[in-house]
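Key idea: predict the complex, not the pieces.
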Amino acid sequence: MINDFNYLKPGTLKEALAMYAEHDDCKVICGGQSLLIIMRQGMIAPEYLLDIKHVDELNYIKFDKKGGLKIGATTTHHAVEKSDVVKANYPALVAMENKLASIQVRNWGTICGNLAHADPAGDPAPVLIALKANIKVGSAKGERTMALDEFFVDYFETALQKGELVLEIQVPVPQPKTGTAYQKFNLLESDMGIVGVAASITLNGNKKCKEAKIVLGNAGPIPKRSKRAEEFLAGKALNDDVFTEAGKIASEECEPVADIHASEEYRKHLISVLTKRILKKAYEEARG
Ligand SMILES: Cc1cc2nc3c(=O)[nH]c(=O)nc-3n(C[C@H](O)[C@H](O)[C@H](O)COP(=O)(O)OP(=O)(O)OC[C@H]3O[C@@H](n4cnc5c(N)ncnc54)[C@H](O)[C@@H]3O)c2cc1C
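Result:
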C-alpha cells in the first residue's frame, strides 16, 4: 500500500525547481518505474511527490558532431532506443536499452531516472561511463556538470544535493577508431544483471590500444571502473591472451557482495569472463 502524499505537477523547469526548493520531504517522480516499487514496499513515504514527467522542455535527444549527444531528463528509455542519431553514433547505448527491462518499463521509465535511482545493477551507467558521459544537474540556485563517474556515491546514493534535479546526460563524440560494448549476465530475460560489464577501446593503428575504459556493474556499491585493467591495456598490442589477463585483473579489483542471486565468487568469475568477452567485442568494433 502507498501512503498518502501531496502531488505537485509543475509545467516548466523553473516551476519544478522552485517547488523542489520550497518543499521538504519531497521526492521527484518521473516514470515511477523504480520509485513506486519502493513506495509500495513502504521503504519510503514522502510527504510530497514532484512529478516532472510533463516538463516538456526536458524531453529531448539532441546531437551534433561537435557537442555530441544530449539527453534531457524526461526522455524515456524507449526514445533513446529508437533514436536514429543514437543508433548511428552510439550503437552500444541502443543495444543496452534493448535489453533493459520490458517494453512497458522502457516506454514510461527514463534513463535519467535510472541514473538518479543509483541501483548498482542499473544498465545505463556502465555504458555511459565507458562513453565518458557527463551529467548536468541543477537547482533553483544554478546548474553544475560532473563526470558521470563521480555522480555515484554509494548504494542508491548519488552526489545530488537538496533541491537538485538531474537535467541532462551529455555524451561526447567518440574518438575515431573507438569501439564500445556492454553485456550483462542475467537469468531472466529483461531483468537486472547479476553483473554487467561495459568496455570502450580506442586504437592506435589497427591493433594497439591507445585508451581503454572498463566499467563493472553490480560488482560493488557503485558502477566501478577497473582502473588497473585499463592501465594494463594501455599501449598493448591486443589479442585474446591480453583480454584474458585484463578480465582476471578486473575480477580481482571488483568488490561484489553475495545475495540470493549469486555468491561473491561467482560474480567475480562472471566479471572475468564478461570483461574478456566484451573487450574483444569493443576491439572488433574499433577495428571496424
Ligand atoms: C519490471 C522492471 C524491470 C526493470 N529492469 C531493469 C533492467 O533490466 N535494467 C535496469 O537498469 N533497470 C531496470 N528497471 C529499473 C528502471 O529501468 C529504471 O530504474 C527506471 O526506468 C527509472 O526511471 P523512472 O523515470 O521510472 O524513475 P522514477 O521511478 O520516477 O524515479 C527513480 C528515482 O530517481 C529519482 N529521479 C527521477 N528522475 C529524477 C530527476 N530528473 N532528477 C532527480 N531525481 C530523479 C526519483 O526521485 C527516484 O528516487 C526495471 C524496472 C522494472 C519495474
